[in-house]
Every structure is written in structure tokens, then in C-alpha cells.
Amino acid sequence: MIKNLLKRFHRSQPGFTLIEIAVAVAISAFITVGTVISLHHLIIGGSNTREDMRSTQFVQNTGSWIRQDVLMSQSILSGDNPTTGENETMTLYWAGASYKDAQDNDLIDYYEVSYYLDSQELRRKEHVTTKVYNSNGSLINTIEDEGIALISDNITGFTISSENVSMVLSISALVGDASTEKTYEILPRAALIE
Known about the structure:
Layout: H1 2-12, H2 18-72, E1 75-78, E2 88-95, E3 99-100, E4 106-118, E5 121-133, E6 139-152, E7 155-163, E8 166-175, E9 178-186, E10 192-193
């Protein structure tokens, strides 16, 4: 009895025609090709977006560091500082606030900060001279400290110019095929010395 039911069921089910199978394969192929193309664009687009974001991040990080130092500076030397071996774009100078040590001596930090481009790496060289004065105001000690920090890599351009009382800073970076350029206008405390 079950055998007879199965035979009837199979006889009532018509098979697929060759045309129906070809149409199903064609639709599957279109869907597969569309999916592969979409994934390819997503991967390539994601890579380009990452490069754009990194390039922008390098420029913004550089601008933030320089802006902070320019706002602190009391004098700015644009161009190479002949007292060092690097090819600086600018050197900034300022004195910090007076503070006391444990022996009640007055200390003042004097900063000299230089920015220079080494290949595509922007470096910040900081030289701090701390002068120690006793309660009579006499200089009793001088402490020198120096350090170099990598501010950002992939920097392709870094220029500074003076426009009226403000300083114009142009920074450009390149990561892969993504290029970012930004110009900052900063109103420094100090006048720019050419």
C-alpha cells in the first residue's frame, strides 16, 4: 500500500525542464557575480577609507602639537636654526612659570622647541633649560634636558608663513593613495621672526 502511494506521488510530480534549470542557474550566477563585485568594492573602498582617515589623522595630530607650542611661545624663528644640525622649519622659545622646589628655591624652565621634517617623519626637538635661584635671587644651578619625539610620519609637506599678525601653517600627508592637506591660521602670542 505505501509502495503504491509513493508511485502515485512520483507520477503526479512533473520534473524540471531544461529551460527551468538554465534560468535557475543564470539567476544564481547573476546573484553570485553581484555579491562578489559588491564585496570587492567594499574591501577596496574600506582600504581607501582607512588610508583617508589615517592621512587626516596625521595632519590633525601635527596641527594640534604645533598649535599648542605656537600658543605657548614668546618668540618664533621661522626657518633653519643655524645652531643645530637639523633643517628646521621653525623654532619656538618661551619661559615657563616660576615654581619652588623642596629647598624653597625658585625654578624657571626655558623652552626651545624645534620642528623639522626628516624624510616623511615630522620630529619635535625639545631643549629645556631649568635655572635654579636661591631665596636671594642668585642663580645657583642650571639643569639641561633634551629630547626628540616623533610627532607624525607620512608628512609630505610642512610650511609656515606670516600673514599680518597671524601665522599660517600648511601641513600635508600621504598614506597609500590618500592625500590630505590642511591649512591652520594661528594667532600666536609672539611675533614671527623671519
